[in-house]
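Sample pair:
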Amino acid sequence: MTSGHLLVWIHQYGYVGLAGILILGIVGLPLPDETILTAVGYLIYRGHLAYLPSLLSGIIGGGIGITLSYAAGAWIGRPLLLRLGRHVGLTEPRMATVERYFDKYGSVSLIAGFFVPGVRHVTAIVAGLGGMPYPRFALAAYTGVCIWVTAFITLGRFAGPHVAALREAFPVGDLWLSAGMAGTFCLVGCWLWMLKRKKRRL
């Protein structure tokens, strides 16, 4: 399903549709969550959605999704998870990588993991598998959800005038393409920032 289809879904079902998309994306389906959140910010700029209800819907959807991933890790078990998870990119090497970071950084991995596509649901699964107490998980995971949703929606909201100017200069058929540019820029910036911090520790 493309970003364009997902935006049509949000247009049709509003805030409930946004929450549903984030639930599915965080559980592990290959959905462009950051692009969608940035596009939602652009829709807020255009007056099609309201800022606070969008934030609330995104946080609720993200919170439910990350909780389901934690529950899967706590209750299903590693062998079955790996068999089922291969359909959504949950592989043994990826799990092992996240476990190493989790051992080193603990709860911080739950927050930082939101900004790495394909990793956020794995951090929650690892937390469940490792028996992390729910209160500790909840504090880190829900803090991460709030920061992640707020950052990308706000990015789209304040980048709205610039995206609109780009669309006038370079007309495109789908809104998601313009929003995707902003989302990609933010992702690259986060990645470079993480690399810089890693080099400083070496």
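The longest helix spans residues 175-201.
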